[in-house]
Amino acid sequence: MVEDLMDEGDWQRFKDTVAFEQYIVYEGQLDFTDSLRENRNVGLRRVRGSGRDLYHRLAENPHMEQVFYRYMRSWSELASKHLVQELDLSGRKHLLDCGGDAVNAIALAQANPDLKVTVFEIPASGTIAEKKIAQAGVGDQVSVITGDMFADPLPTGCDVLMFAHQMVIWTPDENTELLRRAFDALPEGGQLVIFNSMSNDEGDGPVVAALDSVYFAALPAEGGMIYSCGPPGSAPSSASPSRAGPRTASSSPPSNPHPSPADPARPPRGGRAGSHPTNKEVTACSTHNSGTTPHGCACCSTANSCRERSARR
Fold this sequence. Notes:
The chain has about 325 residues and is of the alpha/beta class. The chain has 9 helices and 9 strands. Helix 3 (about 30-40) packs across helix 9 (about 205-220).
């Protein structure tokens, strides 16, 4: 990937990456050891503001916000190429992009002219997403709703719901809550899409997964890391697009066997105990990073894989 960017003279992405590392990543990662000891993102103390995580503090730091979203856009544009190639939205009518900065939403809208896309983003970032949509000229297809995906009900009326580069940010309990909310928001026959950087199922690589996990542990929010897609020992080859074709997966809302105290800023984590399995499709697209280390919500890879998993929890 680096060689391709150099051959194409795409130096702006390098500049965006260096700026992101300089102004956001490096200082916060100094607190990695303390973050491990205290089991929280201690590096957030180096970002001025009162927001509960990095994303809620960006608006209080205009230069940092500009650097962050320029970098996110730069790398999301590369990652979205894989998303468009691998994700079959034939017959789908309306996609909800949860926590997206509109880059993926725009790419999917352009590749699927009959698809409506709604971006669900925090208020501080909603205006940025709206500007990107207007610049791309897809305002008739893509819209923005602002809210908090942990505190507010997810918008309904969509037959596809996507978490793009979100699962790396949050704790397992928080990810479980998001999946439960997605299940509740989707109709019968709906599709859940997870587009994410993932480590090997065996937990032995790639190295960049460990490097990225330093950033997620120390700075953005409490408890994030690069997770694997399946349980240890599952065959990595099954994730290859050439080995696993699309199929409908049956899933029920995930249970949480080890609940943790609720964040005061978020509702208690509950669930519909004993719910019956419903036909809802689960598509997990993995972006295994190679060579370059993009951090944050958007990640890019030259070794993309797509996995459809059926899970009854």
